[in-house]
Amino acid sequence: MISKRPFAKWLGDTNEVTRIFLAAGEIPDMINLAGGLPEPSVWPADIIADMAYKAVLENTEEALAYSPIEGLPRLRDVIAERYNNNETKLTRDNVLVTTGGMQALDLLGKIMLDEGGLIAGQFPTYLGALDAWRPRKPSYRPMHLEGNKKFDAHAALEGAKFGYIVPNFSNPSGFLVPLETRKSFVDAAHATGTLLIEDDPYGTLYLDGPPLPRLLDLSAKRQIGPYDGPIVYLGTLSKMLVPGLRIGWVIGAPDVITALTLAKQGSDICTSGLCQKIAQEAFSQGLIEDILAPTLSIYKTRRDVLCDAMEANLSELFQWTKPQGGMFVWAQAIDPRIDTNLLLHTAMDCGVCVSPSSAFDPSGANKNSIRINFTLNEPDKLNVGIKRLATATRRLLAES
User: Fold this and answer.
1) Which of 99, 117, 121, 338 is deepest in the core (most CB within 10 A)?
2) How far is CA 166 from CA 99, 119, 215, 224, in A?
3) Is the bond into 323 cis (omega within 30 degrees of 0)?
């Protein structure tokens, strides 16, 4: 039904993909390969329940009352301590607790963007970021990093309100930004003064090889004392522990944290104190480290199964690169007749849901790729899902 109410105009520009793939889990026999959804079996539900019980009884006021807008002081301290190292010096003044990573993106848009403001964004781009910033109708300067040896980070960031990248296993492409490119971004951010958003939900999900240094750490090497540089780092518990706690954080220069705090005051006043206390205990007790090894073992197996199934069933239809971590495989159609907006609906008719590339392009023009998630489903479902996707793709080609 088309509403006649005078809603804001930006609502007419929103994408339907997030809603579709979140709802896909409720459709009987639908195999959901679309979302960035973690595996529930590794969630330490009993431990989290015990933490919640103790927080309510032993820290009643912190857990159940309004919290400081910036977040509980001790949790901010714990987050700062987690990221402190020989190069990076943080205090609680460098940390804002947010209601999930999505709130951090929304707040950054509020403090940095006037209508039409320019964002230098890694393309393809996380659709949640596009959704968060859409009400401000920004313009985008695409940064195509994959295979681009001549990429000029300085030219990309110059004049932009901010830059945005997901350096570890980018959503949606699964691309791991190389060390030299990371260094060039940090150089450019310092030279231009442009804030650079380092969104890092997948930084713990390295399946092959050692982790590369954060842009935050590369930047912090340039100064002495608490961090005051141009990198704004975003973290979240959603992929490293559980998504339902809705705990995220921003690490940045104190003036950035102050501005974000003012924006958060008009957003939700504060993040759940109970969830913050659970997060504090999870960090303090090493719970994230405890579940990391089994999580990575499951994800590596599933990534390999998915890529093998794609090789067996989709190699004549798509091309892709096996990711070194994260949650996604990005597959590009070989035949130009494959419109992945149409494929989404044909695939759902065949019992599988994938994410079309148009959702990760603010113009909607990219229609030749799909994002496939490998973390949620067991190997048997991954095999069946890819076979269904192959059937759907061939059906679409036959009808074109």
Assistant:
1) 121
2) 19, 14, 10, 26
3) no
Residue 14 CB partners (closer than 8 Å, separation 6+): 131, 134
- Model confidence at 23, pLDDT cuts 50, 70, 90, reads confident
Parts of the chain belonging to CATH 3.40.640.10? 45-285
As assigned by CATH, the class of the 45-285 domain is: alpha beta
Hey, which residues does 140 pair with through a beta bridge? 119
Residue 73's DSSP bridge partners are none
Residue 46 amino acid letter: D
d(CA 242, CA 250): 18
Q: 318-320 and 247-251 as β-strands: parallel, antiparallel, unpaired?
A: unpaired
Measured at the alpha carbon of residue 224, what is the angle toward residues 222 and 226, in degrees to the nearest 5?
Answer: 110
Range(s) for CATH 3.90.1150.10 in the chain?
Answer: 11-38+289-399
Question: Does residue 17 surpass a pLDDT of 80?
Answer: no
16, with CB counted inside 10 A (0-12, 13-18, 19+), is: exposed
Burial (CB < 10 A; 0-12, 13-18, 19+), residue 25, is middle
Residue 119 confidence (pLDDT): 98
b vs e for 185-220, b when ≥16 Cβ sit within 10 Å of the residue's Cβ? bbbbbbebebbbbbbbbbbbbbbeeeebbbbbbbbb
